[in-house]
């Protein structure tokens, strides 16, 4: 996606002004945050987190995701009630595994948007495990070549996205912009043109999945998602590195980042050690405070950074690149 800032998983967009808050519905919790303009930047002004009952959210590309919709809606209502402002419109972050991400290349890019829409949908329909007519499809252009271009495309079942939307609606909030968690984390790096130079790797660990993205400056050139924890992270990173070198003309990563939370305490620290051993370089934590200020009254720690990274990435994108209805 071009800077990964795009229309989200929905075809209707949030009208200006930006959302009042961001909400993330994850497998184990619901979280929310607000930001405020301060000087020449933004500051996290409030946040809230509410744990979910085990199994209330079962993230998946197909099938029911919110197995206890009432509990999820209640958690959304709780976190919104703890924020410092009244919330009516939210930007919504959903699990990566609720969407299928593909990178596609076209030798020739149609000049008309309608023609490009049809071409993208035709290309991804072959890999989608459900009829494309039942899907939300969004895309953005990344690296450009002479006469052609690469695109990052996200496809999600419309009824799956609506499950997450409806949880917000039941809590009294309209979700006008929806995106997946790791894309929101990456937007934290890309906001304000702070993308690291060269090729860089980001690993985002969540209890239900792990996602790996390779960025070339501000453009995504690789994305892979692994559900569960059957495959060791070191093996996943090794396969990714081989593909990067063989197929993407990789010359080595300038920086490596890892963040998130696993199923057990210490899972991310263990994953960091695996990553560093495999790549023979330091893996930096994904730190939301590197891209946004945090109010003095908020105590910053690794657990909070895990909560804030996708929320603030989503909010910075919405504030810095407003979309129109």
What is the CA-atom radius of gyration, in angstroms? 19 Å
Shape: globular
Domains, number: 2
Described by its quaternary structure, the protein is: single chain
Identify the strand order in the major beta sheet: 8-4-1-2-3-14
Q: Report mean pLDDT, rounded to a whole number.
A: 88
In the CATH classification, which architecture of the largest domain applies? 2-Layer Sandwich
Distance between the termini: 20 Å
- CATH homologous superfamily assignment of the largest domain: ATPase, nucleotide binding domain
What's the quick description here?
This protein is an alpha/beta fold.
Question: Can you walk me through this structure?
Answer:
With 325 residues, this protein is of the alpha/beta class. The chain has helices at 69-82, 113-125, 158-170, 181-190, 233-247, 267-279, 302-320; strands at 21-25, 29-38, 41-51, 89-94, 100-106, 135-145, 148-157, 174-180, 199-206, 209-216, 219-227, 255-260, 284-285, 293-294. The protein has two domains: 2-98 and 157-320, ATPase, nucleotide binding domain (Nucleotidyltransferase, domain 5); 100-155, Dna Ligase, domain 1. It contains seven helices and 14 strands. The strands form three sheets. Strands 8-4-1-2-3-14 form a six-stranded mixed beta sheet, sandwiched between helices. It is globular, with a radius of gyration of 19 Å.
